[in-house]
Amino acid sequence: MTNLNRYKFTFGEKQLTLTTEHNNLFMEEIERLIQEKYQAIKEKLPHADAETLALLLAINSMSVQLKREEAYEKMEKNLEVMRGMVKKKNVTLVDLDNLDSLEDDE
Questions:
Q1: Contact 7, 26 (CB under 8 A)
Q2: Which of 22, 32, 54, 98 would bridge with 26, disulfide CB 3.0–4.6 Å?
Q3: Taking the chain, what is the end-to-end CA distance rounded to the nearest angstrom?
């Protein structure tokens, strides 16, 4: 079973405790990013309440995540095409090597 870590931090005006598989160093970086993005949104919308800011932060985060997943999938498809090309080229090279050895047998 995985060891779980309890990490406490303040988000907006709320004290939160997260139970996570990640260590404190990782969670501190997450907290730093959250605070940075939260403040950026708050500066653009100074009259928005904490809940609206949190929802906008979540939506923005999911937007970035989706873009990264789409880029990853595109990269995976390109990699698969390249693997196919390399495999085809390697088979051709092996076939040429076999032809050379067949000529030597004659």
A1: no
A2: 22
A3: 64
Q: Give the model confidence (pLDDT) of 5-19 as tens digits.
A: 999 999 888 899 999
Contact by Cβ (8 Å): 39, 53? no
CB count, 10 Å around CB of 48? 14
Q: Which amino acid, 104?
A: D
pLDDT in tens, 65-96: 999 999 999 999 988 988 887 777 665 555 55
Return d(Cα 12, Cα 61) in angstroms, integer. Answer: 17
| Distance from C-alpha of 16 to C-alpha of 27, rounded to nearest angstrom | 12
What does the block give as tokens for 93? 């090279």
- How does the average pLDDT of the chain come out, rounded? 86
Q: What does the alpha-carbon distance between residue 23 and residue 27 come to, in Å, rounded to a whole number?
A: 6
